[in-house]
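User: I've been trying to design a sequence by hand for this structure and keep getting stuck. Would you show me what you'd pick, starting by listing the structure so we're on the same page?

Assistant: Good idea, let's start from the same input. This is the structure you sent:
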């Protein structure tokens, strides 16, 4: 494998994205159109994403469980908006065991309905609340236009489903999980995100309202990277999720759902990658440090390999690999690990062994500027320090890039211009008509109405009506 044929980002970002996934061996195309095979390196990245999120879910009182892949068709029909939203994407099983089924089964596109059905059996009194359950699962949505990780027929995710006694508690939970996604994106993936509410048009089918974390990719398009939905009593009423309150009165529950998927791998690729390949955030990288030994003859080989093993042992607290492929040159290996986005590379040659020092190269800073000599005894502290520095500078770089490409567009012409190569932040009257016009004219959609905004007085960029709400508009994946 080599990177000499990797298309440059500014030449064709979409082609760059497709190639990098293949070359870094993250995923491959499956024989069924639109399906994805996640390869071991990609899955290891997803596993680290899972670990980081799962720890946060558990720390906030959630438990994991597993619900079935098949859902009776009639369940989806119980919530009107939900079935309308998902019908075009459903995979439906009509036969099983060689016989036609009495009722068709849907392969879950999401699990609000079946989990709601189970909650109606489990929840009896206010003492049973809140119910805080998450599941790690695969889901199927029959998409017509697919991209590896970003949009595939089958994808992997977590979906949290909670039930509460009051509207206020459900809203609190919805926001709590939104902020957990934000914290994860920033502090694990080094991806800056904007948190906000989805417009009525863009919200989840069946939700009262949806919150989102939105990230800007390297081509300035937006990627919805995680969502948290306040479902109000919509699903509780559809599935009869009721409880007896302290006054012995029957009440409907208030429910939420929230999810983050393998799409996030796409966010990592497109936020941080460059023309040499991936750059993985150190806290999620399957391999944080790779050791590349350099030698010319057998005598050198023995000394260098011995020392490399010693360095590897000294750094056993990190996810570290010693590249002992003797058939490949160091130059080939450098390119290979750069393509795979390993944050730190340790180079060890005979002179380094003699000096009891190694060279450490940062993936995010090319050439000499990113290299430093480190004494053996200082290795663990220095590697930790470098990984933390890498994380912070990746986050800073992505934040600067994003902020440079967000334009405060005060007129419709400015908005149209801004969304050609960035996002527009503009006053909007909150009408569906103005939102639809922007989408029709520019292909940009409302990414979110940010939670933190000053609500300054202004006028809708489309219709001129007075409003104090601003929203982000962008083309999106
Ligand atoms: Zn308007």
């Amino acid at each position: 494998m080599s990177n000499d044929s990797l298309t440059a980002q500014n030449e064709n970002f979409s082609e760059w994205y497709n190639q990098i996934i293949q070359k870094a061996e993250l995923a491959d195309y499956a024989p069924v159109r639109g399906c994805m095979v996640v390869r071991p390196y990609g899955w290891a990245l997803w596993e680290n994403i899972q670990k980081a999120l799962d720890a946060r879910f558990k720390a906030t009182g959630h438990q994991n469980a597993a619900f079935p892949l098949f859902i009776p068709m009639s369940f989806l029909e119980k919530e009107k908006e939900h079935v309308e939203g998902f019908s075009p994407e459903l995979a439906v099983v009509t036969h099983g065991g060689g016989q036609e089924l009495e009722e068709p089964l849907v392969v879950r596109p999401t699990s609000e309905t079946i989990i709601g059905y189970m909650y109606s059996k489990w929840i009896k009194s206010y003492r049973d609340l809140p119910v805080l359950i998450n599941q790690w699962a695969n889901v199927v949505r029959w998409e017509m236009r697919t991209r590896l990780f970003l949009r595939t027929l089958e994808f992997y995710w977590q979906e949290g489903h909670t039930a509460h006694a009051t509207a206020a508690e459900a809203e609190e939970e919805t926001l709590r999980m939104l902020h957990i996604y934000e914290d994860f994106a920033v502090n694990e993936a080094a991806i800056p995100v904007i948190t906000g509410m989805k417009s009525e048009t863009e919200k989840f089918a069946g939700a009262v309202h949806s919150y989102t974390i939105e990230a800007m990719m390297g081509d300035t398009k937006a990627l919805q990277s995680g969502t948290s939905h306040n479902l109000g009593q919509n699903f509780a009423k559809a599935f009869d999720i009721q409880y007896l309150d302290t006054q012995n009165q029957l009440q409907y529950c208030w429910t939420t759902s929230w999810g983050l998927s393998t799409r996030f791998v796409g966010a990592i690729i497109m936020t941080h990658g460059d023309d040499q390949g991936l750059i993985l955030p150190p806290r999620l990288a399957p391999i944080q440090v790779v050791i590349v030994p350099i030698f010319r003859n057998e005598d050198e080989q023995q000394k260098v390999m011995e020392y490399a093993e010693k360095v590897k042992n000294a750094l056993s607290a990190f996810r570290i690999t010693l590249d002992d492929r003797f058939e490949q040159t160091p130059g080939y290996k450098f390119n290979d690990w750069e393509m795979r986005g390993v944050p730190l590379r340790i180079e060890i040659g005979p002179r380094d062994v003699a000096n009891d020092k190694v060279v450490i190269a940062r993936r995010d800073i090319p050439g000499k500027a990113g290299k430093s000599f480190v004494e053996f005894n200082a290795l663990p502290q220095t590697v930790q320090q470098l990984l933390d520095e890498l994380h912070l500078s990746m986050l800073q770089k992505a934040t600067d890039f994003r902020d440079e490409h967000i334009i405060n567009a005060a007129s419709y012409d400015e908005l149209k211009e801004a969304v050609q190569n960035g996002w527009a932040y503009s006053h909007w009257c909150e009408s569906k008509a103005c939102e639809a016009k922007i989408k029709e004219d520019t292909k940009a959609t409302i990414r979110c109405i940010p939670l933190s905004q000053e609500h300054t007085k202004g006028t809708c960029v489309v219709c001129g009506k007075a409003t104090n709400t601003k929203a982000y508009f962008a083309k999106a994946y």
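That's my pick for every position. To get oriented when you compare it with your attempt: The chain has 14 helices and 25 strands. The chain has three domains: 13-272, 289-386, 406-474.
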